[in-house]
Design a protein that fits this description.
By secondary structure, the chain is mainly alpha-helical. It folds into two domains: 10-56; 58-173, no CATH class. The protein has seven helices and no strands. The protein has helices at residues 3-55, 58-69, 74-99, 105-119, 122-131, 137-149, 156-181. It is elongated. The termini are far apart. 11% of the residues are buried.
Length: 182
């Protein structure tokens, strides 16, 4: 075996090692992306859970209902403004993460559905006009477009409550008819 043969064998072995390293690196990168997305989803779920716990508090709940209707005194409006601003910061975060490919379409669609709902509320719309200078230009344009495309809705809480009561009554009637058939 000549020196050139040994060099050729060495080149072949090093090429194979590079190929194996690239395959391994690709697998690691895919796993890293999955782990990152999992962390993002977990953080998003925790953030939503904390938010829902916060707005379920009686004093906050009443302030949000009245604020969405545009009916607050000064002190309540200050709290509503802070609450809405906080919510918008979360929406903007999801908007940016989705734009960067860190938040998948399914996760983003859930966020978008919530934001579209908010865009129909008179108090939210009024508050947005006041806080929008605090947000990025692309997000501001996006929310303004959503508000423009979303009709104003009033008495949302009352209408949702009535719909919920009607659905619950149907479920009770269904359970009673199943019990009487047995």
């Amino acid at each position: 075996m000549t020196l050139s043969d040994l060099a050729a064998i060495g080149t072949l072995i090093s090429s194979a090692a590079v190929l194996v390293s690239l395959v391994f690196l690709t697998l690691q990168m895919r796993q890293t992306v999955k782990n990152q997305q999992s962390l993002m989803q977990n953080g998003r779920a925790q953030q939503l859970s904390h938010w829902l716990e916060y707005i379920a508090k009686p004093e906050v709940n009443r302030m949000i209902i009245d604020g969405n209707a545009g009916n607050l005194d000064l002190e309540e409006w200050v709290r509503y403004n802070s609450t809405t601003w906080s919510m918008l910061a979360s929406y903007e975060n999801n908007f940016v993460q989705h734009g960067e490919g860190m938040l998948n379409d399914e996760q983003y669609d859930a966020t978008l559905g919530s934001l579209k709902f908010q865009c129909g509320l008179p108090g939210f719309r009024a508050n947005w006009k006041m806080v929008q200078p605090m947000f990025g230009e692309r997000f501001v344009a996006f929310v303004n477009e959503l508000i423009h495309a979303t009709p104003v809705t009033v008495q949302v809480t009352e209408k949702s409550h009535a719909a919920w009561k009607a659905l619950a009554a149907k479920e009770v009637a269904k359970a009673q008819s199943q019990t009487s058939e047995s």
